[in-house]
Specification:
- The radius of gyration is 26 Å and the shape is globular.
- Among the domains are: about 10-110, Arc Repressor Mutant, subunit A; about 150-315, 3-Layer(aba) Sandwich (Rossmann fold); about 315-430, Serine Threonine Protein Phosphatase 5, Tetratricopeptide repeat.
- The strands form three sheets. Strands 9, 10, 11, 12, 13 and 14 form a six-stranded mixed beta sheet that branches. Strands 4-3-2-1-8 form a five-stranded antiparallel beta sheet, with no helix packed on it. A three-stranded antiparallel beta sheet has the order 5-7-6.
- It is built from 26 helices and 14 strands.
- It is of the alpha+beta class and about 625 residues long.
Length: about 625
């Protein structure tokens, strides 16, 4: 058990607590918490991970002569504490209830180092340029070539030995950070892949640090080539500091310059330059990430530092194919997934030990069968995704995206709810800035009816990816399935303001109108979404449902006939036909389609328990039996 002095400042998640001054802050903003709720938090933080019993809380906080009902007072205080932290009792991130015994603080807790005495200011004004600043002389750097026990021992020694140059200004530790797109300064434009790959690798590596929140790739990449002042970018992303840099390649050599800036004060915190062989690029990515963490004064565990430096040599041709796959996967809609998969196949063909190639393959295969996408049956794509994820983790157990994909396979395809959720929680505990995993987990939580927890996860994902229309739409969907239609409509409108052709948000808005019995607005909105989506089958199926339920049975049947005709050309999930039959009030046909969707392991079946389209069928015993066969309670 780790004991933390009650007079220290500690950090967990996005919160910092000065236990001496009874001051709780979230991302630098004070959170009002006083009295017993703060006292309970302080007691839990003094012994993180340890059970604090109800008796201990009573003896310390409720005097023996108190006339207040202790049980009621304690429960109310814990509820207020959870409300301040945005926590949920049924899916805790911070305060876990141990039934009838007490409470335990389950998140990683870091002691914030006491700042050293202020040093005299430099004679000249602080530089305002954001060009790299020369570092102090470096000591010899260690490189890890394997994942064995001996390597970990060497890296642990290296972590304790080497510290990078840091700023002369005594600034507080960075809490939120964004890595802006690195600039390609090579002569060849196609080498922009390398700059993007390094940017993404740094985001991924920095996301492994529990005390740091890192803005997701989607939002960071929006600033490619931006001329906005850094303080403005920092305000828009809600971060304390920004990482900028440049990449060049000449033959087998790659050069990297990187610097960390406290954007609000326009002051550099750290800078360095590196020159490596392309075979060492993975080691370089971890080395730069670790230097950024230390330059940002972020509390970091030895295990996290070691994990940043673990690497192995990579075949440069395989790495180039992986870079191309990542670019295709992220920048091209629909077709980019299959082309990205082909590039990842090339990467692992060139280097069968290249774990990231298999991680990319797992993501592509899983996406091919994702709800609303479905370029192939999930019974074909999910086993491939699972095999690729397992191979990636066998080669590198620290690949968070591969483990997140495996967790989703377990939850949404194998329907091994407990195993998948346990795995996803481990992923997020070790990689709290993994926005996509928070959003994916929120889908599962919605499906099993844990709406408060689903909203909390979706909000985390949206906070980590503030400019992402996808994250905004997912948050809207979580509100919709929680039957909070007014709030969902506002969220979908927010997404449409950012992207007027975002058809998922447009359909979501139509569904909100529908659930509020505003059919005259719902159907035209859905028809516009269909046009924006170039006839996405999910949008078409919901429109068929709405036609039928509004009394326009002919148009509803036309949708059914069209879906049946399409089966000769592509995979058409049975779930979509079930939606239309439900709108036509053809219960037996809808149930038969849902049974086929269950056999297809359709991703939509994860939400069948809460989907409003099937509300009228829930009293049918056959519907309950269907849920039982999936493992729903």
């Amino acid at each position: 058990m780790v004991l933390i002095p009650p007079s220290r400042t500690v950090r967990f998640g996005v919160f910092e607590v000065d236990l001496r001054r009874e001051d709780l802050r979230k991302q630098g903003m004070r959170v009002r918490l006083r009295g017993h709720p703060f006292d309970i938090l302080a007691m839990l933080l003094e012994r993180p991970g340890d059970l604090v019993t109800r008796e201990e809380l009573r003896d310390r906080l409720w005097p023996a002569d108190s006339f207040v009902d202790f049980d009621h007072g304690l429960n109310a205080a814990v509820n207020r504490l959870r409300e301040a932290l945005g926590d949920a009792a049924d899916n805790p991130r911070f305060v876990e209830t141990v039934p009838r015994r007490g409470y335990r603080f389950i998140a990683p807790v870091f002691v914030v180092p006491e700042p050293p005495p202020e040093s005299p200011p430099p004679a000249e004004a602080a530089p305002q340029s954001f060009l790299p600043i020369p570092a102090a002389p470096r000591r010899r750097r260690w490189r890890a070539w394997a994942l064995g026990v001996a390597t970990v021992a060497v890296l642990t020694a290296a972590v304790a030995w080497r510290r990078p140059w840091s700023s002369p200004w005594r600034l507080p530790a960075v809490q939120r950070l964004a890595v802006l797109p690195f600039e390609n300064v090579s002569a060849e434009p196609e080498q922009a892949y390398l700059a993007d790959g390094l940017t993404e690798a740094l985001i991924t590596n920095l996301s492994q640090v529990a005390a740091l929140r890192v803005v997701s790739r989607t939002s960071a990449m929006a600033y490619r080539g931006s001329t906005k002042p850094l303080p403005q970018i920092a305000r828009e992303l809600g971060v304390d500091a920004l990482v900028k840099g440049s990449v060049s390649q000449s033959g087998t050599q790659v050069g990297v310059s990187a610097w960390l800036v406290d954007a609000a004060r326009s002051r550099p915190l750290w800078a360095d330059t590196y020159q490596r062989n392309m075979t060492d690029i993975v080691a370089l990515e971890g080395e730069v990430a670790r230097a950024i963490v230390l330059g940002a004064r972020v509390p970091v565990t030895t295990q996290e530092e070691v994990r940043l430096l673990l690497s192995s040599p990579v075949n440069p041709v395989a790495y180039a194919a992986w870079l191309r796959g990542r670019s295709l996967r992220e920048t091209l809609p629909d077709v980019g997934v299959s082309r990205g998969a082909a590039a990842f196949e090339e990467a692992v063909g060139r280097d069968p030990l290249f774990a990231r190639g298999y991680e990319g393959l797992a993501d592509c295969y899983w996406t091919m069968g994702a709800p609303g996408f479905e370029t192939a049956p999930r019974t074909e794509t999910a086993p491939k995704a699972k095999a690729a994820a397992l191979k990636a983790l066998d080669l590198d157990p620290h690949l968070a995206a591969a483990e997140a994909t495996l967790a989703m396979v377990e939850m949404e395809y194998d329907w091994r709810w407990a195993a998948g959720e346990s795995r996803m929680k481990r992923v997020l505990a070790a990689n709290p800035s993994l926005a996509g995993a928070h959003l994916a987990y929120s889908t599962y939580l919605s499906g099993v009816g844990r709406f408060d927890a689903a909203l909390a996860e979706a909000q985390l994902g949206a906070d980590l990816d503030p400019l992402s229309v996808t994250a905004s739409q997912v948050l809207g969907a979580r509100l919709f399935y929680a039957r909070q239609y007014d709030r969902a409509a506002l969220q979908f409108r927010k997404a449409l303001e950012a992207s007027p052709t975002a058809f998922v948000a447009r359909l979501g808005l139509a569904q909100c109108h529908w659930q509020r019995d505003d059919w005259k607005r719902a159907i035209p909105e859905a028809e516009r979404a269909l046009a924006d989506s170039e006839t996405n089958l999910w949008v078409l199926a919901w429109l068929g449902y709405a036609y039928g339920a509004s009394g326009d049975r002919d148009r509803g049947r036309n949708v059914l006939r069209y879906l049946e005709t399409l089966k000769e050309q592509r995979h058409v999930p049975a779930y979509y036909q079930a939606m239309v039959h439900a709108g036509l009030d053809e219960e037996s046909e809808a149930l038969a389609d849902l049974e086929r969707a269950r056999e297809e392991r359709s991703g939509w079946m994860m939400l069948v328990k809460v989907a409003p389209e099937f509300d009228r069928m829930r009293a049918d015993p056959r519907f309950g039996e269907l849920l039982g066969r999936m493992g729903f309670e």
